[in-house]
Design a protein that fits this description.
Blueprint lengths: L7 H15 L2 H11 L6 E17 L6 E16 L5 E7 L3 H14 L5 H28 L14
Antiparallel strand pairs: 1-2, 2-3
Helix pairs in contact: 1-3, 1-4, 2-3, 2-4
Amino acid sequence: MAGVTASAGTVARRRWMSVLALAPADELAAATRRALPAPPRYRVLRGPETGLAMVRARAGGTGTRFNLGETTVTRCTVQLEDGGGVGHAYVRGRDGRHAEIAALLDALLQDPAYRPRLEDAVVAPLERAHAERRHAAAARAACSRVEFFTLVRGEG
């Protein structure tokens, strides 16, 4: 939708949902246990449910979109028992516990009382770890990079 801008809250939520979905499940669970030794009670509204989602791509990153293939995703929706926030999560793969923890954290991160602690103890460390993994993968790929060039033959 052209011309629509996201609010600061939407941008922040998009960021933490991405971090939670991309984090390895074991790292997410460990960070959550450290930050919330006694997590609040919640009830599962939907899921965890596993299904397929179509992955779309663009030729050259900017060209026409095309269907690349399907990937397995698991979704979950939870609500805090105190009648508080509702959290949603979609994670790649079949790990229902990963989706459930991410949904719980989404619900808690929407609460101003929990957000600063969870940002510092869960989201920021997972975001740094993801950036480090991406940087390491890019460094490994750079070692095998090949530069091509063309020599122009002169008329002679």
